[in-house]
Structure formats: structure tokens, C-alpha cells
Design brief:
With 131 residues, the protein is an alpha+beta fold. The protein is built from three helices and six strands, in the order H-H-E-E-H-E-E-E-E.
Length: 131
């Protein structure tokens, strides 16, 4: 199996677009079950039903995104790890309180049953202050 880095970048971009479009079914088709996430809210494990609940009824929605500095590594033919920076605009579900954020993200994708699925995602706020 030969998978290109571009294929994984396209999948990651498609997943982000599914959040902007509020297209939960597309997101679920790309998520492994269970999946893991680590963010400012802590570490969590979730199944497809729990993702649907978060995506369709959570407090915040992603309004736009821009991915940059994409790096893809294949530790095995069935595993891909992506790291990148994302500039995202997030708002309350009702459209108020929009804010722009810059995050350092990573995703782990696994290839099984003929398709790539995201099994883990992390996001960490980027410190805008010089060191």
C-alpha cells in the first residue's frame, strides 16, 4: 500500500471542512470508533454517537480555518501522524462571540477495512508571546 502525504493532508482538510459545513455524517465517516481527543478541555474518548452530540449540540462551532506547516509521518503503512498549525475562527452556536485562535494540532490516522480513519486528535493553543 502506497499512500502519499497529500492524501492525508486532503483527509485532514476534508475533516475540518465537515466541521465548518456542520456535516456530521462526513466527519463520522472519517472517524475511528472509539476515537481520542486532547484539548484545553482535557483528554476524552468518544464513540460516533458522542461525536454527533458534540458536533450538533456543542456550545461552539468552527466558522473557518486555515491549515499550515503540515508534516506527515508514516510510522507504519497503516498509521499516519500529522502535525500542523491551524488558524481557526470559532463562534457560539448562535453566531455570537466569534474569536480567532491559533493552535498547534496533531492527528493520528489508521488504515483499516480499506479506509483511513482518524483515531486521535490534539490541539494546543499557540503562545503568541515571544519567548
Amino acid at each position: 500500500m502506497q499512500t502519499s502525504s497529500n492524501e492525508l493532508v486532503d483527509l485532514e482538510t476534508r475533516f475540518w471542512q465537515s466541521m465548518v459545513d456542520e456535516d456530521t455524517d462526513t466527519a463520522l465517516s472519517m472517524l475511528d470508533e472509539p476515537a481520542l481527543m486532547v484539548s484545553a478541555h482535557g483528554a476524552m474518548k468518544f464513540d460516533h454517537d458522542q461525536y454527533r452530540q458534540m458536533a450538533e449540540h456543542g456550545d461552539k462551532v468552527v466558522k473557518s480555518f486555515q491549515l499550515s506547516d503540515m508534516t506527515v509521518v508514516f510510522p507504519t503503512e497503516q498509521t499516519a501522524v500529522l502535525t500542523y498549525t491551524v488558524k481557526q475562527s470559532v463562534a457560539a452556536r448562535d453566531g455570537s462571540d466569534a474569536s480567532d485562535q491559533e493552535m498547534a494540532d496533531s492527528s493520528v490516522w489508521t488504515h483499516k477495512d480499506g479506509a483511513w480513519r482518524c483515531v486521535m486528535h490534539t490541539e494546543t493553543p499557540v503562545d503568541a508571546q515571544p519567548h
